[in-house]
Amino acid sequence: MNKYLVDRARTLASERLAVAMPQRWAHVLGVARTASDIAPRILTRDAAADAVIAAAWLHDVGYAPSIATTGFHPVDGARFAKSAGMPDLVVSLIAHHSGASAEAIERGLDAELAEFDPPPGVVLDVVTYADMTTAPDGTPIDAERRVSEILSRYSTDDPVHAAVSRSSAELLATVARIKTQLRLAPVGATQPR
Fold it and tell me: Counting CB atoms within 10 angstroms of each CB, which of 22, 24, 72, 134 has the fewest?
């Protein structure tokens, strides 16, 4: 494992979220814990697993008031991660996580999202799975309940509500794909490197 990459991502996220946004930080802790558990079981390369774990730490850093510029946290977070020297895969995972393309369209920021190449599907799926199975307080949550929870936090005219409504079937399909892969890779097992 590239301990430096993961530690650097954790530090960057902690500096921006732990004090300024404690509930968001609790969620990030849970997402990183889930990603750390499942990435080595599903992904066949250490570098991909490390990128997923680093992206899990940084996936919501774009919410930090010190970083937010567009109001679209995937782009703001990806730009921050890029400026901090994170690898391209980490940056693209932050930019494209959890249905970001649907929200970019709703916000009219699809050109800004296009600054970042989409990451490989299975790698993105792991980050999205970790996000969509972690509640705001960092505890595990069923993906259907997570979608409902997100929708309940935003008014029907909010771009987040519209994007999650539009992308919920794909988000749930992503979680189902990873659940299937996890059944094929029992706890404690890692994929051959």
Answer: 22
Asked whether 88 and 62 are in contact (CB, 8 A), the reply is: no
Q: Give dist(CA 191, CA 193) in Å, integer.
A: 6
Q: Model confidence over 64-82: pLDDT tens digits?
A: 999 999 999 999 999 999 9
pLDDT one-digit tens code per residue, 13-56: 999 999 999 999 999 999 999 999 999 999 988 889 999 999 99
Give SS3 for 150: helix
49 in Cβ contact with 88 (< 8 Å):
no
Residue 190's Cβ-count burial label (10 Å; 0-12, 13-18, 19+) is: middle
Of 90, 88, 73, which is closest to residue 150 (Cα–Cα)?
Answer: 73
